[in-house]
Amino acid sequence: MKNYNILFLVVVFLQFSCKPTDTVYEDAICIVNISTIDPNDGLKENQTVILKDGKILKIAASSELNLSSSNKIIDGTGKFLIPGLWDAHVHFTYIEELAPRMFDLFLAHGITSVRDTGGKLDFVKKWKDKALANPTEAPRVMIAGPLLDGETNVYDGSDAAHPELSVRLSSVNAAEEQIELLISKEVDLLKAYEMLTPEQFIKVCELGIANNLKITGHVPLSMDVISASNAGMSSMEHMRNLELSCASNSEELLYERQELLKNKDGLSGGKLRSSIHSTQKEKAIENYDRIKAEKVLGVLKKNNTWQIPTLALNTFFSTKYFADSIYQNSYQYLPDSIGQYWKKRSIALKDFSMSEALKIQSDFNYKMVKKIYDFDIPIMAGTDTPIAYLTPGLSLHKELAVLVKAGLSPIDALKTATINPAKYFNLENELGRIKETMWADLVILNANPLENINNTQKINAIVKEGKYYSRKNLDSLLNGLKVQH
Predict the structure, then answer these.
(1) What is the pLDDT, as a whole number, of residue 348?
(2) Helices 172-184 and 198-210, interaxial angle, to 10°?
(3) Upper half-sphere CA count for residue 93 (Cβ side, 13 Å)
(4) What is the mean pLDDT of residues 13-37?
(5) What are the residues facing 142 on neighbouring strands?
(6) Which distant-in-sequence residues (6+ apart) come within 8 Å of 315 by Cβ?
């Protein structure tokens, strides 16, 4: 009998000694029972995501992990986790008074990375340096420095509509010198603009490629899209001047532009550009040629020339995002004078009736985004904030909505603001997905964005390089902006 008792005690001991112990992740955040939406892998339900040292340490089915109650646990039941969002077209310099508020506005709306596409070098670098020094309290900032423009430059600081965003380059040598300066200041990309000569533009591309920098911008008015793409243009902003190369009379339009660029009337850069646009854009859309357009898009695809459509901006008068009273509430977080002006203008434009020409342009922009998507040309979501009453942060969600309206699937719209910008900057092994070892830049949503893309606005919390911001924390950021009035 004694032997049986000993055997029983041994069995009981072995049972308890083999029981899985509850796991403790020290100095970590454990998000449990959440549905993850990775842009490549799609939706996975009931996941646990462990965050430690600013990165994603572990992802597993919640049923597979026995977590100790001593962990810092966030209950994700009924919620959805997506990667942190990018706004791939912003301008800190456009309204300098607004710039100090942009970090908090971006974070409060789930924007954890931004790409500044043109502004005074010292000013934009200040914000990049501040973000680098405070990586858990600011979005990641990638900068181009000033727009590289021609001798008759557009954003020359001549008036409020044309703040000093560009540098005037009078020659190819001037372009070379400016780019050497930008490289020494460690910019992340170069931004070419519309008044460059073909020779200047080609030099920008040559130097960008030689120094492993992307070349983005507007196709110069002195060139066509195919020539710009073949020269090495990495990406196009706003689909600017795309319609001019998709017209049956594109060669005639190019010759006419080159003559107008001689600027015999001595117009400012802003007025000259506007004059050429007003002379040619409507004419080009009227003469849209499907075969020619598909040839152009084929070249963009072959050369991997990315597109940043800024579609909400390009459909300003048809989308009328600014007319919605809920959208206008976002103006309370801006400096008083700016918020009041934006609201006044938004109300005034609410009942604006589009001309037939504007309607045609808006329809063309929707159609071209769908064709770009169907050609599988990479797209990034960008807004041009704070131009055109595009509130930093909130406007990115409006951009995602219009991309879906144009024909993108919700998951592909999410890609334009997550994995795609990461790929653009060769950061796809660090950012843009919900994957182990990647930076913990994340957004927790209260509803599924794959069912309705507008659900990206239903933010429950965000994580910036491992720092967790609850809804209460995000509201405090916004309330802090309100009391600064």
Answers:
(1) 94
(2) 30
(3) 26
(4) 76
(5) 115
(6) 362, 365, 366, 402
Residue 483: half-sphere exposure toward Cβ, Cα within 13 Å: 6
Q: How many CB atoms lie within 10 A of CB 330?
A: 23
Token pair of 84 as six digits: 């942190």
Beta pairing class for 147-149 and 166-168: parallel
> Residue 60: in which H helix or E strand, if any?
strand 55-61
Largest CA distance in the chain: 114
Q: Do the beta carbons of residue 481 and residue 68 sit within 8 Å?
A: no
Any idea of the CA torsion for 142, 145, 150, 154, to the nearest 10 degrees? 90
Query: Mean of the pLDDT values across residues 7-12?
Result: 44
Alpha-carbon dihedral angle through residues 334, 335, 337, 343, given to the nearest 10 degrees = 10
The DSSP secondary structure of 146-213, one letter per residue, reads SEEE-SS-S-EEEETTEEE-EEE--SHHHHHHHHHHHHHTT-SEEEE-TT--HHHHHHHHHHHHHTT-
CB 57 within 8 A of CB 51: yes
Pair 45, 35: CB distance under 8 Å: yes
The alpha carbon of 31 is separated from its chain's Cα centroid by a whole number of angstroms, namely 26
Element (H, E) at 84: none
Asked if pLDDT for residue 125 goes beyond 50, the answer is yes
pLDDT in tens, 329-373: 999 999 999 999 999 999 999 988 888 989 999 999 999 999 999
Q: Which amino acid is at 33?
A: N
- State the Rg of the chain over Cα: 25
Give every CB contact of residue 18 below 8 A, 6+ residues apart in sequence.
Answer: none
Q: Binning pLDDT at 50, 70 and 90, where does residue 296 land?
A: very high
Query: Pick from 81, 199, 94, 117: which is nearest to 435 by CA?
Result: 81
In this predicted structure, the answer to whether residue 2 has a pLDDT above a threshold of 60 is no
Q: Tell me which H or E stretch contains 374.
A: helix 356-374
Burial of 303 (0-12, 13-18, 19+ CB in 10 A): middle
Four-residue CA torsion sign, 340, 345, 347, 350: negative
Tokens at residue 317, please? 């008068």
